Amino acid sequence: MVKIMRRSRGFRNKTRRTLKAKNRMRLTITQRLKELELGTQVVVHLNPSFQDGMPHPRYQGTIGKITEKRGRAYLVSIKDKNKPKVLIAAPEHIKQFQ
């Protein structure tokens, strides 16, 4: 009898294009230690080099507002369709919205 392996459905499932390191740019220490103010509009932009503090890949590109700082990470409130949600994201995974 042949046993068939079950398919892995991990956290980074189906994210080959989303989490591809674009131009091999290294993260500098200033980018890692950046401080953002409360109420700032930010874009969730995942950095594949760092797995800690990464929000779920389905929120890549969503725009939200910083509501609180929790440790080194930030709480970002977004709207998913019509439902308000709160993401916990490290500063490497968010960019300020222009």
Structural class: mainly beta
> What is the rounded distance between the termini?
59 Å
CATH topology (fold) name of the domain at 37-96: SH3 type barrels
Q: How are the strands ordered across the major sheet?
A: 4-3-2-1-5
Provide a compact summary of the structure.
This protein has 98 residues and is mainly beta. It contains one helix and five strands, in the order αβββββ. The termini are far apart.
Which properties best describe this structure?
single chain; 98 residues; mainly beta; SH3 type barrels; 1 helix; globular
Which SSEs are present, and which pair or pack?
Blueprint: H1 29-32, E1 41-44, E2 63-70, E3 73-80, E4 83-89, E5 94-96
Antiparallel strand pairs: 1-2, 1-5, 2-3, 3-4
Describe the structure.
With 98 residues, this protein is mainly beta. The chain has a domain at 37-96: SH3 type barrels (Roll), CATH 2.30.30.70. It is built from one helix and five strands; from the N terminus they run H-E-E-E-E-E. Strands 4-3-2-1-5 form a five-stranded antiparallel β-sheet, with no helix packed on it. The longest helix is centred in the N-terminal third of the chain and has 4 residues, at 29-32. The protein is globular and about 60 Å long. 14% of the residues are buried. The model has no long low-confidence stretch (mean pLDDT 89).
